[in-house]
Amino acid sequence: MTKRVCMGNEAIALGAAKAGVSVVSGYPGTPSTEIIETFLNEKIPGIEVQWSTNEKTAMEVAAGAAYAGARSMVTMKQVGLNVAADPLMSLSYVGVEGGMVVVVADDPGPWSSQTEQDTRHFAKYANLPVFDPSSPEEAYQMVSSAFDLSEEFKLPVFLRPTTRVCHASATVDLENDPGPRPAAGFEKKPDWIIFPALSYRKHGELEQKQKLISDKVSALPFNRIIKGGRKGIAVSGISYLYAMEVIKEFDLDLTVFKVGTPYPLPLKLAEEFLSSVDQVMVVEELDPVLEEQLLLVSAGKNEIFGKMTGDMPCNGEYSFESIKNRLLKYAGAESADPDMVEIPNLPVRPPVLCAGCPHRASFYAAKTAAKNYEKTVYCGDIGCYTLGNAAPLNTVDTCLCMGAGITIAQGIKLAEKETKCIAFIGDSTFFHTGIPGIINAVYQNTDITIAVLDNHTTAMTGGQPHPGTGRTAMGMPAKPLDIEKILRACGVEHISTVDPFKYEETVAAFNNALEYNGPSAVIAKAPCIALIKLPGAVRRVNEACIGCLKCIKHLGCPAMSVGNDGKVVINESICTDCSLCVNVCPVGAIKKVDRNV
Amino acid sequence: MFSSIVIAGVGGQGTLLASKILSEAAQRRGLFVRTSETIGMAQRGGSVSSHIRIGSQNVSPVIPLRHADVLIGFELAEAARQLNRLKPDASAVVNVDCIVPTNVALRQGEYHCDGYLSAIKKNIRNGFYLNAAPMATEAGDARTLNIVLLGFSVGAGILPFEEDEIREAMECCIKPKLLEINRKAFLLGTGAARKQL
């Protein structure tokens, strides 16, 4: 056994490796991304790891491996599970042979997500067990248990960490890794083919398994009662640590029911807990999953407080502060608020496109071209380029979910025929769920312009490869899929590929695309600045600057600020000499100079 | 020992590595470590903070308000933002550099250099101040700012570690080819602290 400080996501990967996982798939998404990256960084031999094109493909790849008897893991963020819901729901009937763990990272807050959906609900909906770790060290332990449970009941099992588990680190006792477990091989049998008669039988079996699983998980160490007074709290996930710190600091006499498997509820333990207390406060982030189940089990014998009684917040992430006074009041203690220091108003630092980001150039060119029309709606999508919504670019009017920009644009166009619609989509999102929407635009002949912002990586999540990059997650060369050829094969006839930093050409490409009657596309191709070495030159503003601030007001480049003399100053440590600002300056005051001179 | 340390800065300043080195140092001493980081959308030029709690397992990974013993501020406004996270008797090292967001130039935000500094000085009794960027450049790379600040913090005696413990932790958290300039940055930091003591 060795001790190591691991990030939660690292602990999950190392736990899976220890449990003998041999196939891992996923699609990047905060806060889940580092699980797969750990497998890649650790280079554990014998494990097949892939970034799949989307969560649905990832889920199916992992399922196939588990059909063949391998232990498999699939990783994604909570909204990714919506994309993978179709295979998952059927998989709960069909089942698996080798253990399959579905890691879905929830994001209370949310910090980097569209929704605050609760995967524990999804697990309950799919009748599949879910482990809800309270810490990285517990997540490490839970992975092995999840694999064992999955194999015993022949069902996929969820592990649902939240952001504060995924991105927290802790000392973890790592056990020896015996290496990947060989797969038994795919056995042909009718159970793999989901026909109605099989579904009926399997649905019945699935319902029967729930009680057996509940008995099984009642005995797991992740579910336990910490004895105290006649007032109890029930906690799931990270809230356990927040609650324990409050209890310890204020010396509260509460009985704690720590729940590591919120579905199925460890029923025996829940009954024991409820009979030992009169009242219960349920402390869980997001939905009242535990609360609802305890209400059913208690059947009125206990007073149960939580979200449904308005005693706990129903959105956002919890913290020591957000639960402290609620627990103190519940325990009959005085509330305690520390004195606060007065601080002058602090700057807001919204996330911005990096200095030199090619998306800024694409957005600016599209906006320039759109000036010829009365109204243009910019449909955005999920990725770094969602940040184009911020002032001064203001080129993202809609953002819904992965791949939706192209299709939302079609709906707007149908309802508002005189309006021009430009749908921006990144390269990774294009492969993820962009293509069916493009085919729909061609099939329906809807006059929209698709702008593929191809920066050759999955940038927002830290630069993962995708089908267009020519390499796999494991670093092997792959056939790079050509976005222009795909667009053409989908039937888009008006396509131009441009370098967005060639400003005039790019504006012209957008002009032509907008003028074209029917679906058109502009592919703006330039690598993410995180992929390139900073060039030897930078841009510097000379004395000719008249302080009009047009560059700042049009582009919002984070390298630009206003000096004490009212003239623009460029931060040369982050300038990439992209030269976009040169196109905006009315007096030609922005000159190329050598870096470090 | 139970100690809570908060490191605050702007995305891209290298707070993550500094946090990793402190965790490693604690781990090497056999202490339980629990940390929390800002990763994801907030990283791109956003406010970031790393929370490190050493010596206790049943605690929140996020340091509650008024619970931090030590602050390492990589940027002035971000240091000020953490004032309410500190205990009244906390110690701090603050880089006085100001990173003014673009929205201030667009008149959509505000930034008060002097106000932040006086709020910090008023509320922190054991505070040390430096301008770390020139030292990082002197070490050979502006990106060694984080190591300059770590060196300065341990040199000023605000961390629950000895210089050697941080140095050793550094050796195993930094890529070999970058070690030399980081060692230099560390020395510049500890040296500057000694001059202030």
Write up what this structure looks like:
The complex is a heterodimer of chains A (597) and B (197). With 597 residues, chain A is of the alpha/beta class. Chain A has four domains: 2-218, Thiamin diphosphate (ThDP)-binding fold, Pyr/PP domains (Rossmann fold, 3-Layer(aba) Sandwich); 224-331, Rossmann fold (3-Layer(aba) Sandwich), CATH 3.40.50; 358-531, Thiamin diphosphate (ThDP)-binding fold, Pyr/PP domains (Rossmann fold), CATH 3.40.50.970; 537-594, Alpha-Beta Plaits. Chain A is built from 19 helices and 22 strands. In chain A, strands 3-2-4-5-7-6 form a six-stranded parallel β-sheet, with helices on both faces. Chain A has a five-stranded mixed β-sheet with strand order 9-11-10-12-13, with helices on both faces. In chain A, helix 2 (34-42) links the parallel strand 2 (23-26) and strand 3. Chain A is globular and about 80 Å long. The mean pLDDT of chain B is 94. The two termini of chain B are 25 Å apart. In chain B, strand 4 (68-73), helix 2 and strand 5 (86-95) form a beta-alpha-beta unit. Chain B is built from eight helices and six strands. Chain B has 197 residues and is of the alpha/beta class. Chain B has a six-stranded mixed β-sheet with strand order 2-3-1-4-5-6, with helices on both faces. Chain B has helices spanning 15-28, 76-81, 102-105, 113-123, 132-139, 145-155, 163-173, 176-196, and strands spanning 3-10, 33-36, 47-54, 68-73, 86-95, 126-130. The chains are: A alpha/beta (597), B alpha/beta (197).
